Amino acid sequence: MINESRAAHSGIKLEVNEQILDSCTSLMAAIRVLVHKSRKLQAEIVANQGSNGSAKEFYKRNHQWTEGLISAAKSIGLGAKGLLDAANEAVSGEGKLERLIVASHCVAAGTAQLVVASRVKASQNSDNLAELSQASRNVTNATATVVATAKSCAQLVQQTEDLDLGVLNEHQTKRLEIECQVRVLELESSLEKERMKLSALRKLHYQEDQS
């Protein structure tokens, strides 16, 4: 995808596409690690608590917990698919950057739900739980980067769409790059606060469902 973008675009458009693809690629890699760590922890949970029957029977006995895991997995899966579709459309010029933000939020919400559900059954001293928690933090950070990148790139495109990019000098290009980097940092700071709120709300919501 990036090679196609380099062949078809240049200047600000190419820079925007590369930033989008880099952030989305990092998020997808973090999601793959999260899924792997989640499977390891679930296998451990079943092995430790499901000695009186098969894994299928364990999940059936704990159907509410199982439904929570399934819901989280679906949210992450839908978000990941939406992210790939949105990135492809954004780079090809056929989609809106806002779709990347929506997909990232879906992934973040599913990740928070997955970790909360896993902690209910896992041993608090479990190494696999610690690894899942770290993987979830990596996903959260990656989603924040995608959101910040999408927002800053949208603003950059808006600022430059009326310009003749062919006549931008080196100073103008560098100034726009610095402004974009500043906005990314500002948005990441704001998103960190929102992630903390979201995590607390998801945890509260899950606890209420279990009561």
Structural notes for this entry:
With 211 residues, this protein is mainly alpha-helical. The chain has one domain (2-210): I/LWEQ domain. 86% of the residues lie in helices and 0% in strands. It has helices at residues 2-8, 11-49, 55-61, 63-92, 98-121, 127-160, 170-210. Helix 2 (11-49) packs antiparallel against helix 4 (63-92), helix 2 (11-49) runs antiparallel to helix 6 (127-160) and helix 6 packs across helix 7 (170-210). The longest helix is centred in the last third of the chain and has 41 residues, at 170-210. It is elongated, with a radius of gyration of 20 Å. It starts with a helix and ends with a helix.
Under CATH, the topology can be stated as I/LWEQ domain
Overall pLDDT level: 80
Rg for CA atoms: 20 Å
CATH homologous superfamily?
Answer: I/LWEQ domain
Instruction: Count structural domains.
Output: 1
By helix and strand content, what is the structural category?
A: mainly alpha
CATH class: Mainly Alpha
Number of strands: 0
What is the number of helical segments per DSSP (H or I, 4+ residues)?
Answer: 7
Net shape? elongated
H-E string? HHHHHHH
Strand composition percent: under 5%
Helix content: over 70%
The CATH architecture classification is Up-down Bundle
Distance between the termini: 47 Å
Main sheet?
none
Low-confidence stretches at least 5 residues in length (pLDDT < 50)? 1-11
